[in-house]
Specification:
- This protein is an alpha/beta fold.
- The chain folds into 2 domains: 349 residues, Aldolase class I (TIM Barrel); 68 residues, no CATH class.
- It has 14 helices and 13 strands.
- The strands form 3 sheets. It has an 8-stranded parallel barrel with strand order 3-4-6-9-10-11-12-13, surrounded by 6 helices. Strands 1-2 form a two-stranded antiparallel sheet.
- Helix 1 runs parallel beside helix 2 and helix 1 packs across helix 13.
- The longest helix has 28 residues.
- The protein is globular, with a radius of gyration of 20 Å.
Length: 424
């Protein structure tokens, strides 16, 4: 039997019908009150019908003051009947064709855009080290505020269960709040939430306990964790292994392996290969080697996202035990039926449009334009894929010939309009 088609029963009892998972991608589809909309329903029904066994939503925030971008869904405090109805319809759509949908719960922390909050909360008052004043100087959370946020993660998990989702994934990667607490660079606290790894991991572990306690048995709780921050003095590989063991002791359902943050965006890496090129699982996936190191330390099911394109490499990774779930993200923005094709054809290869999306040639090429143009290319590619998600959410076909520069301009215009609506 094709290893990708093998079902997987998680610790909670949730069953994944196959080993392909749609990983979290930001959608920006919420209304100005940060509630789910019909666009979420259209988008996730489309992805569910594409054949993946697992869908993970874009990050749903536990604080409306700490969004990753305007248009995030937020679950904060008591939910109105209207908000619950919208979440329930979202869950029903995302469960089409037997898919299990997990809500990614997050708090953007110091990576909250300045247009949303000029003084976000964080482990310590250490700003994101990036040019352009995209993020404000954060304020350190008090212990009482940390306790409130731990309860907020639990509350949100309970709401997600009531709405009909299969589980939640706590976002402990990419520099957001739970990840920042793990980092010695972002967390300079001297209380019981800072210093030793045991203290820096306390917030994440207590949030997991709160989620499991509030949602109850039969509901999945998973975690996305950096294999490393890839910064000198940051959250390191050995620390990731130890935290994975702590999470295994909590009985989480699966651990998604990732890496990097806004300062070191390793999660946005490209493997440099073109569609159809000879590839191996090790060359194709960004974090497969890190997952193999974690596999030696834990028995928790592992999900690896980033770089996978070919069915052969995916099947080899699962059959070889390096991971249990293959995460797919960008390919599903242009090919929502990709999972079904991978399951049906062992030679299938998903599109890798990012290899063709560049601002060049000429003075705007990365080779001639230096670091600034490289950064623009990164933002442009991200904007291009975000607009493809919007097309799917509105029932349209992807715009495969959309120029990167136009995608970046349209995306920035849309984000500006949504930020103004949020502030009204």
């Amino acid at each position: 039997m094709n290893s990708l088609a093998t079902p997987l029963t998680l610790a909670s009892g949730v069953v994944l019908k196959n080993r392909l998972g749609k990983s979290a991608m930001t959608e920006g589809l919420a209304d100005p009150a940060n509630r789910a909309t019909e666009a979420h329903q259209r988008l996730y029904r489309r992805w569910a019908e594409g054949g993946a066994g697992l869908l993970i939503t874009g990050n749903v925030q536990v604080s409306r003051r700490h969004l990753e971008r305007p248009g995030n869904v937020a679950i904060e405090g008591p939910q109105t009947a209207e908000a619950m109805a919208a979440l329930s319809a979202y869950a029903a759509a995302a469960s089409a064709d037997g898919a299990a949908c997990f809500v990614q719960l997050s708090h953007a922390g110091r990576q909250t855009p300045i247009t949303v909050n000029a003084h976000p909360k964080a482990p310590s008052a250490i700003p994101v080290a990036l040019p352009g004043k995209q993020f404000g100087v954060p304020e350190a959370l008090s212990e009482a505020e940390i306790g409130e946020l731990i309860s907020a993660f639990g509350h949100a998990a309970g709401v997600c269960r009531a709405a009909g989702f299969a589980g939640v994934q706590l976002h402990g990667a990419h520099g957001y709040l739970l990840s920042a607490f793990l980092s010695p660079l972002a967390n300079r606290r001297t209380d019981r939430f800072g210093g030793s790894l045991e203290n820096r991991a306390r917030f994440l572990l207590e949030a997991v306990r709160a989620a499991k306690g509030a949602a109850g048995p039969g509901f999945g709780v998973a975690v996305k964790l950096n294999s490393a921050d890839f910064q000198r003095g940051g959250f390191a590989v050995e620390e990731s292994r130890l935290v994975a063991q702590m999470l295994e002791a909590e009985g989480i359902d699966f651990l998604e392996v990732s890496g990097g943050n806004y300062e070191q965006p390793r999660m946005m890496d490209s493997d440099g290969l073109s569609p159809g090129e000879a590839r191996s699982a090790r060359r194709e996936a960004y974090f497969l080697e890190e997952a193999e190191r974690l596999r030696a330390a834990v028995k928790t099911p592992l999900m690896v996202t980033g770089g996978f394109r070919g069915a052969a490499a995916m099947a080899a990774a699962v059959a070889g035990g390096a991971c249990d779930i293959v995460g797919l993200a960008r390919p599903l923005c242009t090919d929502p039926d990709g999972p079904a094709r991978l399951l049906a054809d062992p030679g299938a290869v998903l599109p890798a449009w990012e290899k063709q999306l560049r601002l060049g040639p000429g003075p705007l090429s990365p080779e001639r334009g230096g670091a600034f143009v490289k950064m623009l290319n990164g933002f442009g590619v991200q904007a291009w894929f975000c607009l493809q998600i919007l097309n799917l959410a509105e029932g349209r076909q992807p715009e495969l010939r959309l120029p990167v520069w136009k995608a970046l301009w349209r995306y920035q215009q849309r984000e500006g309009r949504m930020a103004k609506a949020l502030l009204r």
